[in-house]
Amino acid sequence: MCRAVFLLALTVLVCPAAEALDNGLALKPTMGWLHWERFMCNTDCYKDPNNCISERLYMQMADVMVKEGWKEAGYEYVCIDDCWPSHQRDAKGRLQADPKRFPGGIKKLADYVHSKGLKLGIYADIVGKTCAGYPGSLGYYETDAQTFADWDVDLLKFDGCYMDWKLLGEGYMNMSRALNKTGRSILYSCEWPLYEWPQKQPDYKAIRETCNHWRNFDDVYDSWSSIKSILDWTASHQDIIAPSAGPGGWNDPDMLVIGNFGLSHDQQEDICPRSKKLLQNTDIIAISQDPLGKQGQCTIKVDSFEVWERPLSKKRLAIAVLNTQEIGGPRGFFIRAAPGWKICEPQCNVTQILPQYKELGVQTPHTKLVVSVNPSGTTLLTVTPTSDYAGLIL
Ligand code: GLA
């Protein structure tokens, strides 16, 4: 994926360690909506018609994504997770959607989602059954890939529950090839390393060549402790996982859960305005979608603060300061203690993105600027060096 090769030194800066899956997709991290964390395997449309896994849920989500500014902000994929299929394959061995919950079938749902200018994702599993016990794809990789292509599906989340870990690599690669063989561009989201880590260190070169993104760690829950565990895992494994991230292939920390309850069917029209504003914040999205595509890393843990830094295009840097002390009030952090602050030599321009947008003006390496960070909160800045000299030392 690293096409513009000017200088060796430059390619080292902009290219991840291995080639990405060459399907032209996920050049930036995927943005969209996935049903799992909020709606799970709720299939009881009789008792709970507004929250069950049915075509209605995805159609309404597509409507909301257009109407409420999500599509405009860059959210593109509407993704089905587990529990969508019928428990039986059809006479030709193809997966079929549960006929009661998806009376129109997946093709019609894909047409609807596409008519809104969005894309549709679907879910399957590498062995004989999915994590929730629905039919899996083992023995049917080519059939299922072709079925998804015939339905005009745009993304496949391929789960790895119940697979003998020694066969994970082979299975994920075979499905990748099967998807490629259909000729349709289908973004391929894997859970290969998540299931391999308990046994051995995964081969991230092979994973990047096979998948467009890959889950490494546990499912996210709607709680701060779950988010913290994902952050901790990521920080403690970043030397292994971060180099493999870049245009075409990404480490997937699972879903954002901000405003999650607000995104339930009942409340989707009135998601709490503050959560909506955060999820649609164009400055944050610009950091996520920055074309340089380098993964952010935890660069220092000090005095119950964590600093996370992400190099951005045009020699800029995003700095997030997290206050991990969950007692007391807001605490001040001397921003010059962030290791990446060296790009402020001789000067830089600083913008605070969170908690409120604020221009913090021109700063130097020796600035006394202190940023305030709430307990378990994050202050997010972007830093732009103001001279070529500073750019050279990035
Ligand atoms: C696993 C995955 C989740 C979700 C469920 C569905 O736990 O990690 O993201 O897809 O299966 O059953």
TrEMBL record:
Organism lineage: Eukaryota, Metazoa, Chordata, Craniata, Vertebrata
The protein's name in its UniProt record: Uncharacterized protein
Superkingdom of this protein's organism: Eukaryota
